[in-house]
Amino acid sequence: MELEFLRWLGERLPADVRAPLGLRDDAAILELSGQRVVTTVDMLTEGVDFLLSQDDPERIGRKALAVNLSDLAAMAARPLAALVALTLPREGALSLAKRLYEGLAPLAEEFGVALAGGDTNTWDGPLAISVTLFGEVTERGPLLRSGARPGDVLLVTGQLGGSRLGHQFDFTPRVREALWLAEHAELHAGIDLSDGLSLDLWRVCQASGVGAMVDTSRIPVADDAARWAAQLADGSTALEHALADGEDFELLLAMPREAAAELVKEQPLACGLSIIGECVAGEGAGKSRLWRREADGSRSPLVPRGYEH
Amino acid sequence: MELEFLRWLGERLPADVRAPLGLRDDAAILELSGQRVVTTVDMLTEGVDFLLSQDDPERIGRKALAVNLSDLAAMAARPLAALVALTLPREGALSLAKRLYEGLAPLAEEFGVALAGGDTNTWDGPLAISVTLFGEVTERGPLLRSGARPGDVLLVTGQLGGSRLGHQFDFTPRVREALWLAEHAELHAGIDLSDGLSLDLWRVCQASGVGAMVDTSRIPVADDAARWAAQLADGSTALEHALADGEDFELLLAMPREAAAELVKEQPLACGLSIIGECVAGEGAGKSRLWRREADGSRSPLVPRGYEH
């Protein structure tokens, strides 16, 4: 539904020099008073992003900021300040607000985010948290979805899949990793893996007008992906979960082959870096066709799957 | 509840040079990359700010932006760009999103606001809209709540009370008026009247460490305040509604007496300007005691009443 709405909106919104990216990336870049500010908003809601009946409010509060930090990481931007808007169920609102904050504040401190303001309301509905995060672009400029080129290799940080078993709350947004990589390597495109590797890869390919070939055997599959598959016992595989679960909040990057090979050899980041495939020339109307290649060399189309808003 | 939460939060938040106002005004001022950006967020929700069963989505979308424009007007800041986060009931989400936008977009265009991004979700809950608005401070600097001095007179724009009869949706945020006044007059303090004249006046007095004397006979009472009192038939008066209804989204300003007298004589704004009283020396612990003075000169305490979040 979000995709269809954005398409409809994209045809109506006038182009504006103050928001040169339009609605096309993880965060917006605003030209404010001659200064480029990166900003992003995410609204987390009961039943979609958490369940108050089973998730501690501290973890929910932490997640509300962490997902926005992940969006800034995707742009290789430095976080600066946040606004927090809460809409709380009336019953126990104050105690809930305090517990959300107790989870959010330490993460804000860790990433140097000033909590600058917000809005706090109560209503006869479930909990909704909207965090707006501001950051600044480094000298390297913002990392966009649209810069991938045929021949680039695809890199991911960390391990993927099975985030429902806890990672969806406890992940570390890859802000430091993104800033380090942007400073030390030539990055062509990036996105954070919020909705599923194959779906988010498709978005990068769409924005860049390229296709992609994914080596399934090289995808770093998290142990939790296998555990989650076993728990579901629905015939799904750990690899399928790594390709489509989402909420990994790792980085997917496109960059030149040699620099990527060197990075993977050196492994400068504690979370790990893996090459999972490469960008290929676009084909067909959308130009963003995805392919998968198995360990035996056989190829087949990769269908983008993941969480659709 | 919001007030108690902000008090609790204020004791915990570390002071931060990047957000010098703390949580004390209508909008936050961020020091981003050496540039001052004014930003504010408001979350509007079903049952609190609108009723989807009786209010057109176009009016709701318009209001979601308008209340934020009013917050920037309160700071005498120039609007620049907005992010819109929607959480929509699943049933009919796309059609609702489009209608909200159809109401919001013309107001954005009228006030030169670039719609730069957002977040769109669906859930099994009611409609919630969170708009984050960015603006820039003019050369005059931001207008704050905290600058009122004893001897200043209190001015309001427009008419007050009875906003429930339609004004709560159809008001024009006083952005142009605030910018004009900030350029042509010496303003000491300002706030937008979102929660009720007496309550918002009390906030200005608290922030400034002054008291206030309100001449009840000089308050510009809207015709709708009398209509609303008649409709309620609960013994309330039009004046009481002007003092406490809220959602007037007019400006309350504190400024030097002579400049105010000249403005009221000249009436440069189509919405009208009225002197409604004056700031007096603070008294007692809170220093922000409010008084009312009737047409016959009799005085009594004015109890701050309005909408408490």
Structural descriptors:
homodimer, alpha+beta, 60s Ribosomal Protein L30, Chain: A, Phosphoribosyl-aminoimidazole Synthetase, Chain A, domain 2, 2 domains, seven-stranded mixed beta sheet, globular
Per CATH, what is the topology of the largest domain in chain A? Phosphoribosyl-aminoimidazole Synthetase, Chain A, domain 2
Number of distinct beta strands of chain A:
12
- Give the CATH class of the largest domain in chain A: Alpha Beta
Distance from first to last alpha carbon of chain A: 6 Å
Mean pLDDT of chain A: 93
Order of helices and strands of chain A: HEEHEHEEEHHEHEHHEHEEE
Shape estimate of chain A: globular
Number of helices of chain A: 9
Helical content band of chain A = 25-40%
Count the domains of chain A: 2
What assembly state would you assign to the polypeptide chains in this entry? homodimer
Structural class of chain A: alpha+beta
Low-confidence stretches of chain A: none
Proper CATH architecture of the largest domain in chain A? Alpha-Beta Complex
- Spatial arrangement of strands, main beta sheet of chain A: 7-9-6-10-8-11-12
Give a short synopsis of this structure:
The structure is a homodimer. Chain A is α+β, with helices and mostly antiparallel strands and about 300 residues long.
Topology:
The structure is a homodimer of 309-residue chains.
Chain A: H1 2-12, E1 28-32, E2 35-45, H2 57-74, E3 77-89, H3 93-110, E4 114-123, E5 128-137, E6 153-157, H4 167-170, H5 175-184, E7 189-192, H6 197-208, E8 210-215, H7 223-232, H8 238-244, E9 251-255, H9 257-266, E10 273-281, E11 290-293, E12 299-301
Parallel strand pairs in A: 3-4, 8-11
Antiparallel strand pairs in A: 1-2, 2-5, 3-5, 6-9, 6-10, 7-9, 8-10, 11-12
Helix pairs in contact in A: 2-3, 2-5, 7-8
